């Protein structure tokens, strides 16, 4: 996983670099490997299950990859690969850099991972006294 951990700030662009070119100056790097390319274009972590599990495990949002509660995501852009509003381009089974290795019902898997992301995010928040 990226050394940036759960505080990592992923791609601000919603399109893959194959369309927009290299990431802009100041881009923090791929969520999955930390290299200077968009997370959707990562060739080092190609397993869809691994990508989704890493995002959810860090308590990050599946729609934008940022570290906030998925319930409060303000991302308005749909996935460029399939049009879904429920996952980031990097987490789409139609992304050419992704190996779709989800076994069983994909919607159920995404729903379970969204719940895990929410749980992990909440667990990382300071306790209120």
Automatic annotation (TrEMBL):
Name under which the protein is recorded: Uncharacterized protein
Species of provenance: Ancylostoma caninum
Compositionally biased residues, Low complexity: 1-18
Span list, region Disordered: 1-20
């Amino acid at each position: 996983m990226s050394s940036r951990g759960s505080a990592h700030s992923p791609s601000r662009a919603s399109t893959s670099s194959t369309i927009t070119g290299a990431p802009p100056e100041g881009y923090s790097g791929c969520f999955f490997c930390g290299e200077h390319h968009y997370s959707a274009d990562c060739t080092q972590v190609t397993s869809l299950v691994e990508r989704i599990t890493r995002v959810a495990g860090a308590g990050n949002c599946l729609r934008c990859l940022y570290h906030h509660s998925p319930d409060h995501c303000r991302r308005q852009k749909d996935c460029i690969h399939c049009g879904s509003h429920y996952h980031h381009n990097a987490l789409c089974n139609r992304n050419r850099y992704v190996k779709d290795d989800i076994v069983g019902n994909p919607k159920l898997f995404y729903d379970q991972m969204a719940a895990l992301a929410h749980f992990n995010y909440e667990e990382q928040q300071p306790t209120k006294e």
